[in-house]
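debug: dumping io for the single-chain case to check the tokenizer round-trip. Nothing else runs in this session.
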Amino acid sequence: NSIGAEGIARSQRQARLTILLAAVMWSTSALFAKANFFHAWPIDGFLPQRGLLLVFWRAVFATLVLAPLVRRPRWTWKLIPAGLIFLAMNVTYLSAMVRTSAANAIWLQNTAPLWVFLVGTTLLGDPVDRRDWLQLACIAAGLGVIFAFELRGGQPTGVLWGVAAGATYAGVVLSLRWLRTEDSAWLVAFNHGFTALALAPYVASTGVWPAGWQWPLLVAFGMLQMGLPYLLFARGLRWLAAHEAAGIVLLEPLLVPLWALVWNDRPAWWTLAGGGLIFIGLVSRYLRAAGKPTRPPDAPLSGDHAATSLLDKPAVPPEAGKPTQRP
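debug: decoded output
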């Protein structure tokens, strides 16, 4: 009836706003990672200490938000490799974030679909779909543009971490495919808790501890940038098809460089050009998904459907949805 239809339409509008808010919150990674308040934490060496410290504290406070949501924890040995690859994704992404521009970091991480395709077709026996070629060509071209010009600058470390972030992001997507039958809230909470525990000995050995304004920033980094958006995304997916949610989340990589401007972190023109090509590739994936038939919006999506979509989020494109787990 008309009353029921109006209620569903209202719920879908609210769901779009909820997922939009999640995308905006995810995009604030640069606002925290680039903050001047952390400049005393060193970034010397190939593996910057600041990146590792940020990964640890974000994981700690994200776990505090996510752990209470776990309803169906179940141990399996598969969680160990999944936790390791999630740890690697976070370390590579935040290492890139502190060693190169925020725009480089986020766009290179979003090359994940290219790595998923390469691993899937060469090692996992996934079929080759010719419709993927536009997306893959755009992503590869964007990667090539950014990488080539950054190498000319003689400081490739940050870009190498960004490329690694894309590859490990793909690894998270593939590991979540492997664990698709597990409870999504449990997987997300486990991965963050695993990351915190794995890095705890290193953090303790550094003797570097937060002070002053660093504490509220780190709490917000973990709870507001990482933990809470997962909850919002999961809630929105109850009423929206996964492809529509994925389209909304494409806002994230566009906003990350804008947040970085607060700290005077400006992208080079080749980053804008390469990022534009990668974005075209991601949009082509979304448009293709949007053209597929979906269930009519006569009822909210089931919890299982929402959980599965959330697991693909980090790949949303990939993200890895989050829940993949967004960096």
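debug: round-trip ok. The longest helix spans residues 2-26.
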